């Protein structure tokens, strides 16, 4: 019996031991689903604090409740560890580590190469390795397959290699790891077959494609599509401000068309691990083929500039009160990159915080989910408590993340000027609430004076 048949049999009998490298927003939910499906799973992460927290039954991921984690541990089939030596006992490994950008906005694949280098001394023939980290087309082949070939492994014969992009959307109540369709691209037909055979145990809808490059490209297309369309609607929002048109009303009206239109909304910038980073991975790779994507670069420029647009809006609102941004007291409401989660990765709120500081404002933030972060100076910044009376002391409140547990009516009734970047106060029409994508009072006065 060959390696393909042996591994397939182990998977079908649920005797295959699985490892998940990276116990973050992607890896931990994946590991829990694997345990639910009846497999023995090692959760590998070099962060020993994370491993200890997991062993104690506490989850640091919004989408995994403590109860779910504790049930997984109670099966005695989930083993969190920092020791790569466990790889010698594994039949399949899924790699779910970060892929950030360098300071020069180039792909940083050091986490992937670090995992492969740590695994190599403990690997054996007949293993399935699946990369899930978002990356540029060609990564699986260039960084992993070539290394395996140097070790003497032959893809599809004694090693099985796939790429299956993660599609995690933290806080999404409709789609999770289990019910999200999963693209799978193997280096060979046997790689794809055995990869799909394993993943269908815990993700029923596996979508096979012909190669890892196709799977890698599909992930970048998904999020570059979103980046470009968000940039477009951000530009429309700025246009509507200039033309004294409410962009939110425009978008809602356009969205009534049952075909040919997809609703995107403007905001203070883009956040999370995917949308700010994925297009730059694609742009970087394309340049190696002497292809320069104007859409990607333009979208990145518009979206990256949105925090500056919000600061400009804040300055206009303060001008109405006869105040300047310098020395004004600003409170950012919501720091996470999207509602109802604690995830701060690439959050536009972090950039806004630094911009307000640079402009001399006394800036603080309140977020019921994200309790602290490190600023650019390496200092820990804590969320200030929610205090109705203290809120009245601020010169301006800036709504950045529209968490559902904010009391919007109470905030509106304070009478403190508000810059609303999310249309969170759409039900309120007080004159002290200023929405991104609508003309400010300053602009209206300017238009009146010009007309005179």
Write structural notes for this entry.
The strands form three sheets. The protein has an eight-stranded mixed sheet with strand order 3-2-1-4-5-6-7-8, sandwiched between helices. The protein has a five-stranded parallel sheet with strand order 10-9-13-14-15, covered by helices on one side. Helix content is 40%, strand content 14%. It is elongated, with a radius of gyration of 25 Å. Helix 11 crosses helix 12 (348-358). The protein has helices at residues 3-12, 27-36, 48-55, 66-74, 110-119, 139-150, 189-199, 212-243, 247-254, 278-287, 294-320, 348-358, 388-391, 408-413, 441-451; strands at residues 17-21, 40-44, 78-81, 92-95, 127-131, 159-163, 182-186, 206-209, 329-333, 362-366, 372-374, 380-382, 396-399, 418-420, 433-435.
């Amino acid at each position: 019996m060959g390696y393909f048949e042996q591994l397939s049999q182990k998977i079908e009998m649920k005797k295959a031991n699985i490892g998940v490298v990276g116990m973050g927003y992607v890896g931990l939910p994946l590991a829990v689903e694997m345990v639910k499906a009846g497999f023995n799973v090692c959760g590998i992460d070099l962060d020993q604090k994370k491993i200890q927290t997991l062993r104690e039954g506490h989850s640091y991921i919004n989408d995994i409740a403590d109860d779910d984690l504790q049930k997984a541990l109670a099966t005695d089939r989930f083993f969190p560890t920092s020791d790569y030596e466990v790889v010698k006992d594994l039949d399949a490994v899924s790699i779910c580590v970060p892929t950030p950008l360098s300071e020069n906005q180039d792909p940083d694949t050091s986490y992937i190469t670090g995992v492969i280098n740590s695994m190599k001394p403990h690997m054996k023939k007949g293993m399935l390795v699946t990369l899930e980290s978002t990356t540029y087309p060609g990564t699986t082949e260039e960084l992993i397959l070539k290394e395996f070939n140097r070790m003497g492994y032959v893809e599809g014969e004694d090693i099985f290699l796939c790429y299956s992009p993660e599609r995690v959307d933290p806080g999404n109540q409709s789609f999770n790891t289990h019910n999200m369709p999963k693209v799978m691209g193997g280096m060979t037909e046997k790689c794809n077959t055995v990869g799909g055979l394993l993943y269908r145990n815990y993700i029923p809808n596996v979508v096979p494609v012909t190669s890892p490059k196709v799977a890698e490209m599909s992930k970048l297309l998904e999020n570059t599509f979103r980046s470009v369309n968000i940039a477009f609607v951000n530009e429309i929002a700025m246009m509507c401000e200039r033309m004294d048109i409410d962009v939110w009303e425009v978008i809602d009206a356009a969205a009534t068309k049952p075909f040919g239109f997809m609703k995107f909304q403007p905001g203070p910038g883009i956040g999370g691990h995917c949308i700010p980073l994925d297009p730059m991975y694609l742009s970087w790779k394309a340049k190696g083929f002497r292809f320069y994507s104007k859409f990607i670069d333009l979208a990145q420029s518009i979206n990256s500039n949105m925090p500056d647009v919000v600061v400009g809006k804040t300055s206009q609102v303060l001008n109405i009160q006869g105040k300047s941004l310098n020395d004004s007291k600003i409170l950012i409401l919501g720091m996470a990159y999207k509602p109802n989660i604690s995830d701060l990765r690439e959050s536009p709120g972090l950039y806004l915080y630094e911009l307000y500081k640079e402009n001399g404002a006394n800036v603080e933030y309140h977020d019921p989910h994200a309790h602290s972060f490190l600023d650019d100076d390496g200092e820990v910044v804590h969320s200030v408590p929610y205090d109705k009376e203290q809120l009245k002391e601020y010169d301006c409140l800036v709504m950045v993340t529209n968490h559902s547990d904010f009391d919007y009516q109470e905030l509106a009734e304070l009478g403190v000027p508000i810059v609303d970047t999310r249309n969170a106060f759409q039900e309120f029409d007080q004159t002290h609430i200023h929405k991104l994508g609508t003309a400010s009072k300053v602009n209206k006065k300017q238009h009146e004076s010009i007309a005179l």
